[in-house]
Design a protein that fits this description.
heterodimer; A: 195 residues; Pyruvate-ferredoxin Oxidoreductase, domain 3; 6-stranded mixed beta sheet; 42% helix; B: 577 residues; alpha/beta; Rossmann fold; 4 domains; 7-stranded mixed beta sheet; 5-stranded parallel beta sheet; 22 strands; 18% strand
């Protein structure tokens, strides 16, 4: 099988590491070769954070480049705009409509682009925009945004629901488990509504 | 069992399986997780040393003592550890010893992107370089065998993409490697001129033997594909080459990257039509190949800067490009910033307000250099803030308008010696130690001032105050960086004092689990006059909404710094309003 590529983008501190671990776990359980590339260190401090996950019969490079991502999960609108070039021509971007101003916008040195979702759609890309933060808060915590997005993605991928649930059960700490299971379910429902 | 592991976790697993007994490291991205992961095994003693030189010396001592030992550091850490390393090359080992050094191509979290392969050549040591997590584990085991067979420390070269990528690893049980007998042998272990001369002979013989070994070891291999293109590569570049070229090229994959297998290179070069050397950073393999009289292309095609990628290789060698979409307008950059509630922010606000010359250092607080605080003038390396400020003031007499800023862990690492220098040489500089009770930037590692070890044991804290006093500094005081009035007052007094002083800006990192976060603050839009006083602190949770300041409740931790600066008292807790 040709290698498939997924990118998770967001702002440092939004929890993309857990999302990448859940994905890696699911793909590994399906018998694929898997590589995940993470960012640690300075970039984690509120900067743009990018994680790559690739799976297939044999994966060489752990990084994803422009025009290669089958799926992009974005935790934030500006980061979605930034990573659009990475989306494959027929790839799908799932984005949370949350907005976090970067420092150049806060200091007035730059403008936060308006109507990002519309502009992304106008490029002809497949865009699924969901208020994942609101769904996460509905599940019990803003920190579960990652699991909401995973829930949406799981509906677009050919793996059984139980595999995703198993991965969440194994990787999420006990005291946050119920919350994340709920967030995952809300994500799956949201994906159904998008159909 | 097959598991996904970071390269760093796989190195740790390799250490465990290979019977390593003693690990000493100093944290540094991208090497940190190795020591954190290995510390979880009860069979392995693991510690954070105050700096890389100490860590390396501990590993050398453990090797002399007969145990398999290990130390890890980032590329610039090896500069600090270079002194013991070069002479450990002469002494050789008793128990096997590995020093892992993680380069940071692309400078994801570093102040330069030096190529650590130069150290292997300069110190005359073998160096191995894995290309994924599976090899990380396997190469650790091979490195210990090589270390003991050839009586040498072995360098394990990592990179950000290998250290911080997860790939599949098969776990195996630990091999029991007993501690070897220690036999006193000053000719081998006491490096003074008479003995070192003899050891230099041994070093040169060892390099010859290793060059022979390089020709036959399984660490180097040729993967034949189309012979029109031949590529010599190692590490992460190998993965990029395979992805970009697949069977359209033959590949000489180097695992032992110093010394290089000359005959293997010659044989490979003869069988391919065109030879390329694809290596990130410096032209080390290329220079070697050319020295053998073999024509190849390398840096004339590929950059000296940053990371490579499969598309870069496919474009240069095959002329292949991949189409992509672009967003129709410019997207503002999102540089890293100090976290909401970061204790450093209040201090930097005062430094910016007082327009002081700030001699900076390495840590989260280096972010004080960025807009809107812009409160740092220089930053060179770990510990340089204090010593460079002393030099600056000896040159310019600006001690009433300049300060050094340095974190607690960095002060322990190499700031203390600079402070001793100020005390000794009649300096009059003001040093601020930003004590946030943890090593922050690398992700919360303990250090001698926190009172906990890498293994999680409680130990006495090294007192920063006592160290400063012992260095000959009489004026030592502590401030709370959330209290900007107190900070400003302390700075005015210490800058005016006719002797050197230390201000300890003490408050724990807000990301520590032990720190209680408060409810997010809210802006009373009726009171807010949009004066933007609260924007001066550069807090990522404050932004403008409909012409008034607003606070993002998902980011704010209620530190109150912005509220203390609001001239209209428009910021407060929700219930207070």
């Amino acid at each position: 099988m040709e290698t498939k590529s997924i990118m998770i983008v967001g702002v440092g501190g939004q929890g993309s590491l857990l999302a990448s671990r859940i994905l890696g776990h699911v793909f590994l359980s399906q018998g694929y070769d898997v590589k995940v590339s993470e960012v640690h260190g300075m970039s984690q401090r509120g900067g743009s954070v990018v994680t790559y996950i690739k799976y297939g019969d044999q994966v060489y490079s752990p990084i994803v480049e422009q025009g290669e991502a089958d799926f992009i999960l974005s935790f934030e609108q500006l980061e979605a705009a930034r990573c659009l070039p990475y989306l494959k021509q027929d790839g799908t971007m799932i984005l949370s409509t949350q907005q976090i101003d970067p420092m150049p916008v806060i200091t007035g040195a730059a403008q936060y682009p308006e109507q990002i979702v519309e502009k992304l759609q106008q490029t002809g890309a497949n865009i699924i925009a969901v208020d994942a933060l609101a769904l996460a808060q509905q599940a019990g915590s803003a920190k579960a945004t990652n699991t909401v997005l995973i829930g949406i993605l799981s509906q677009k991928m050919p793996f059984p629901q139980e595999e995703w649930e198993k991965a969440i059960q194994e990787l999420v700490p006990e005291r946050f488990l119920t919350l994340n299971q709920k967030a995952f379910a809300l994500g799956r429902e949201a994906a159904d509504r998008e159909e | 069992m097959k598991k996904l592991m970071l390269g760093n976790e796989a190195v740790a697993r390799g250490l465990y399986e290979a019977g390593c007994r003693v690990v000493s490291s100093y944290p540094g991205t991208p090497s940190t997780e190795i020591s954190e992961a290995v510390a979880k095994y009860d069979e392995v003693y693991a510690e954070w040393a105050p700096n890389e030189k100490v860590a390396t010396e501990v590993a050398i001592g453990a090797s002399f003592g007969g145990a398999r030992s290990f130390c890890a550091m980032k590329h610039v850490g090896l500069n600090v550890a270079a002194d013991p390393l070069f002479t450990a090359s002469y002494t050789g080992v008793n128990g096997g010893m590995i020093l892992a050094v993680a380069d940071d191509q692309g400078m994801h979290s570093s102040q330069n992107e030096q190529d650590s392969r130069h150290y292997a050549m300069a110190a005359k040591l073998p160096m191995v370089e894995p290309s994924d997590s599976g090899e990380c584990k396997a190469f650790v085991k091979a490195a210990y065998e090589m270390s003991e067979q050839f009586d040498t420390p072995v360098l394990l070269r990592l990179s950000t993409r290998v250290s911080h990528s997860q790939s599949v690893v098969e776990e195996l049980p630990r091999e029991d490697v007993p501690v070897k007998e220690y036999v006193k042998n000053p000719q081998k272990y006491v490096m003074m001129p008479a003995f070192a001369k003899g050891r230099h002979v041994a070093v040169e013989k060892r390099m010859e033997a290793l060059a022979q070994f390089a020709e036959t070891t399984g660490l180097n291999r040729i993967e034949w594909g189309d012979t029109k293109i031949g590529v010599i590569c190692s590490g992460i570049a190998y993965q990029y080459v395979k992805e970009a070229l697949g069977d359209r090229a033959s590949v000489l994959k180097l695992g032992l990257i110093h010394p290089l297998p000359d005959n293997m290179i010659r044989t490979f070069a003869q069988k391919v039509d065109k030879l390329y050397v694809i290596e990130e950073l410096d032209d080390i393999f290329e220079t070697h190949v050319k020295k053998l009289g073999i024509a190849c292309e390398g840096k004339d095609l590929f950059t000296w800067l940053g990371e490579y990628s499969p598309q870069m290789i496919a474009q240069k060698l095959l002329g292949k490009t991949t189409p992509y979409r672009t967003f129709p307008e410019s997207v503002p950059v999102r540089p890293p910033v100090m976290c909401p509630g970061c204790p450093h922010r209040g201090l930097y606000y005062v430094l910016a307000k007082m327009k002081l010359m700030v001699s900076g250092d390495i840590g989260c607080y280096t972010l004080g250099a960025t807009a809107p605080l812009n409160a740092m003038d220089t930053c060179v390396c770990m510990g340089a803030s204090i010593s460079a400020l002393h030099g600056f003031n000896k040159a310019r007499n600006m001690q009433d308008r300049s300060v050094a800023v340095i974190g607690d862990s960095t002060f322990m690492h190499s700031g203390m010696t600079g402070l001793v220098n100020i005390g000794y040489n009649k300096g009059n500089s003001t040093v601020i130690i930003l004590d946030n009770r943890i090593t922050g930037m690398t992700g919360h590692q303990d250090n001698p001032t926190t009172g906990r070890t890498l293994k999680g044991e409680e130990v006495p804290q090294v007192s920063i105050e006592a160290v400063c006093h012992a260095a000959g500094i009489q004026r030592v005081r502590v401030v709370d960086p959330y209290d900007t009035v107190q900070v400003e007052q302390a700075l005015k007094e210490e800058l005016a004092a006719p002797e050197p002083s230390v201000i300890i800006s003490r408050r724990p990192c807000v990301l520590l689990k032990s720190v209680q976060k408060k409810a997010p603050l809210v802006v009373d839009a009726d009171k807010c006059r949009a004066c933007k006083a609260c924007f001066k602190i550069g807090c990522p949770s404050i932004h403008m909404e409909q012409g008034k300041a607003a606070i993002d409740p998902t980011l704010c931790v209620g530190c109150g710094l912005c509220a203390s600066l609001c001239p209209f008292h428009a910021i407060g807790q929700e219930e207070v309003r």
